[in-house]
Amino acid sequence: MDWTTHVAIFVMAYVAGFAGTGLAFMLLSWAAFFDVPNERSSHTGYVPRGAGVALTPILAVAVAGVGLKATGAPPEALTVAGLAVGLGVLSWIDDRRGLPVAVRLLAHAAAIAFALYSMPAGGPFFGGLLPAEFDVALAGFLWLWFVNLFNFMDGIDGIAGTETALIGFGAAAVAALAGLGGGISFIGVAVAGAAFGFLWWNWPPAKVFLGDVGSVPLGFLLGWLLLLLAQRGQWAAALILPLYYWADATLTLVRRVVRREKFWQAHRQHFYQRAARGSLGHMGVVRLVLAAGTVLIACAAAAASGWTGPALAAAGVTVALLLVRLSRAGFGSRFRP
């Protein structure tokens, strides 16, 4: 493992993320592209929204660069980078003007289908437990859900950047331990570095927001990175790393469906949103997510080292404890929409 190259990639991505987000902050402020608070918001002031307009091309360039230069890099990296930029453009329009849900979902599904078609035949995503057609179909469905849940979970200061950095570092660590080659680990550290640069501006209290132009392409790229791990035999690690996001978003969606609510509309009912409105605030929630995410990285590393069962159990307990803590912190806000 060439640690100097990984460090160099991280530093370059961090500088690009920091400078790009700072430039986006100035331009968005000048253009008065503010996220105006409403009854569904978790903030109270006017904050520029759309910093993903800088972060998305930075990560696309990083992914494309790895695809061109790294030995053993995923051959579809250039295609995935281009699709991420395309989703960013669409999401920028959505940020500015609003697009119908059906149009957004169709675009997400089309990008995922094309990316999956571009991926060379390799190992199954789910360890050979499913027939090949169902294996790919389920991978595509989960990728689509991950893109959208990542967007849903970007609701308080710092949480999306923190989760991005955690998944990036975790993917790099798993790739290194499992000997998967430089491509995945390079992409992981690049994602983490850019996320840290963005977090300088988005850490509570946030100076700028990511916007759909950032959260949708990020969810797309991270979903692809996790599927790369799964396809190379690290399905447990691919499940563990984003487990908190999966749990919070999915349980909230199920709860809203059971209550016959319009689950596709914006709301403030996620565990983390209630906790942020309750006793923890934005900073307290992000610190808990960071701590739990660090434990999940350790669990993913254990799974990559052959301790699959104990790692999955420990990850499940970690996420359950986090959800309980967030639920208790948000008890006072559960009666507010």
How would you characterize the overall build of this protein?
72% of the residues lie in helices and 1% in strands. It is mainly α and 337 residues long. Strands 1-2 form a two-stranded antiparallel ribbon. The N and C termini lie far apart (50 Å).
Distance between the termini: 50 Å
Helix content: over 70%
Beta-strand fraction estimate: under 5%
User: What overall geometry do the principal axes of the alpha carbons give?
Assistant: globular
Low-pLDDT segments: none
- The gyration radius over C-alpha positions equals 19 Å
Properties at a glance:
337 residues; mainly alpha; two-stranded antiparallel sheet; 72% helix; 1% strand
Q: Summary?
A:
This protein is mostly helical. Helices cover 72% and strands 1% of the residues.
What is this structure's SSE topology?
Elements: H1 3-30, E1 34-35, E2 47-48, H2 52-69, H3 77-97, H4 101-118, H5 132-152, H6 159-178, H7 182-202, H8 212-231, H9 235-240, H10 243-258, H11 271-277, H12 281-304, H13 308-329
Antiparallel strand pairs: 1-2
Helix pairs in contact: 1-2, 1-7, 2-3, 2-7, 2-8, 3-4, 3-8, 4-5, 5-8, 5-10, 6-7, 6-8, 6-12, 10-13, 11-12, 11-13, 12-13
